[in-house]
Amino acid sequence: METIPVTYCAAGTFSVAEMTPQAYESSVTTGTPTGFALMRKEFDGAIDGYAETLFVYAYGETVGGTYVALESFDGTIDGRRGTCNIAHSATTSGTDRSLEMLVIVPGSGTAELRGITGTGTITIDADGTHHLRLDYSVDESTLSA
User: How does strand 34-45 pair with strand 80-92?
Assistant: First the structure.
């Protein structure tokens, strides 16, 4: 008999504790400057821990742009301890977010997050507070009885 995975929802807030732009010079000139940065994010709530993030962007103050990020998360999600990768991207005109994508990288989970898969969203309040919501499933055999 096939087991139907249980989907959970976890939410928390996060802040960027460190952002270090990296030297980058492209030989191709486009209408938006491109670059990348290394970040450290801190999460609080049902998603609790930290992430080291690769953040790549094409963004101009007057035209907006797009970013792509890959997080290496270490912490707990709904009390399940482990690590996993989260990939996300979005486009902005400067004051909005559109064409958003967020996925937990399949096969990246360890410990109690082994087998984690899912999607999610990032929202930003008017005051700048960042929220992360994950809709996910995990390998139930990693859960404590």
Answer: unpaired
